[in-house]
């Protein structure tokens, strides 16, 4: 899969793309990322890429000409691949959107700076707009890297385990269960016995239950779409009932979902 990235800061991308899984994917020829500096298409002496907004107000807006010139020089006029603008006004990026994008052999990403891009870029060049969440960044570079990262790991052969992307927690709709590794006891904190027991069926049941519990506590919104058994639905109903009873008994008590205070191990 190929990405063409149009940005004022191509150097931001390189160190991350040169690391670990993405570097290996590129070496294997599974992923190609071409970086293009929009400023290279500015035509005046000062290489101007931004200007004041018509109508006044603060901030600067990215001029249309260098963006059109860059994208059309690289991809043709009109471009024959989806052109995605990273913008706070875009549709929310989710795992489902990552899967959708991973079906394309070739995508263009435009990372904006300043207050945004001239509206004619959206209307006549961009085919899709994506936001990575409801928080304010200084530009679209990190969102573009986020999209590349999330999409690249879904491409066949990029991860060691070919089933890994389908095992992702968001694929089955629950948060992940807790993970532990050696040592079995650290500062007096023990790994749950069931994980040391070797009872694979019991371990699977514990993990599923912990995943369900965490999702219920932290992301109850995910449960609406989760694929749950009757037994799991019953467990949820039981926790709901317990929570209602506990709230009625002591409305000000700390709830189970509150982070536990730091506790020293017994001497
Ligand atoms: C003052 C109004 N702001 C819009 C919410 C202006 C503005 C803030 C931040 C315009 C651009 C930016 C830079 N951010 C992005 O380009 C961006 C972004 C983000 O800030 N959050 C989440 N996803 C994205 S995708 C691109």
Q: What do these coordinates show?
A:
Helices cover 37% and strands 15% of the residues. It has 267 residues and is of the alpha/beta class. The strands form three sheets. The chain has a five-stranded parallel sheet, with helices on both faces. Strand 8 and strand 9 form a beta hairpin. The site of ligand 9D3 has 16 residues, from strand 5.
Tell me briefly what this model is.
With 267 residues, the chain is α/β, with parallel strands linked by helices. It contains eleven helices and nine strands. The longest helix is centred in the C-terminal third of the chain and has 20 residues.
Write the topology of this structure.
Layout: E1 2-7, H1 14-17, H2 20-27, E2 32-37, E3 50-51, E4 61-62, H3 64-75, E5 83-92, H4 95-101, E6 106-111, H5 119-124, E7 128-131, H6 141-152, H7 164-167, H8 169-172, E8 185-186, E9 189-190, H9 193-196, H10 200-218, H11 230-249
The structure holds ligand 9D3.
Ligand 9D3 binds next to strand 5.
């Amino acid at each position: 899969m190929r990405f063409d990235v149009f940005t004022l800061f191509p150097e931001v991308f390189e160190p991350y793309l040169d690391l670990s899984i993405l570097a290996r994917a590129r070496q294997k020829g599974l992923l190609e990322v071409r970086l293009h500096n929009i400023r290279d298409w500015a035509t005046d002496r000062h290489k101007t890429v931004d200007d004041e907004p018509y109508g006044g107000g603060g901030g600067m807006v990215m001029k249309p000409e260098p963006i059109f010139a860059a994208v059309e020089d690289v991809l043709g006029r009109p471009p024959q691949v989806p052109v995605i603008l990273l913008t706070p006004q875009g549709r929310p990026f989710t795992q489902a959107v990552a899967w959708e994008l991973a079906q394309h052999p070739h995508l263009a990403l435009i990372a904006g700076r300043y207050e945004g891009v001239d509206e004619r870029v959206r209307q006549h060049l961009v085919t899709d707009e994506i936001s990575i969440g409801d928080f304010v960044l200084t530009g679209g570079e990190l969102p573009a890297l986020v999209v590349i990262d999330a999409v690249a790991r879904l491409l066949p052969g990029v991860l060691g385990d070919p089933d890994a992307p389908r095992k992702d927690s968001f694929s089955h709709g629950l948060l992940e269960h807790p993970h532990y590794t050696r040592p079995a006891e650290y500062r007096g904190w023990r790994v749950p016995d069931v994980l040391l027991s070797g009872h694979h069926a019991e371990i699977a049941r514990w993990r599923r239950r912990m995943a369900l519990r965490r999702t219920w506590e932290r992301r109850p919104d995910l449960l609406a779409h989760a694929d749950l058994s009757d037994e799991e639905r019953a467990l949820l109903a039981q926790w709901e009932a317990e929570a209602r009873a506990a709230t009625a008994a002591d409305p000000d008590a700390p709830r189970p979902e509150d982070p536990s205070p730091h506790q020293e191990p017994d001497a």
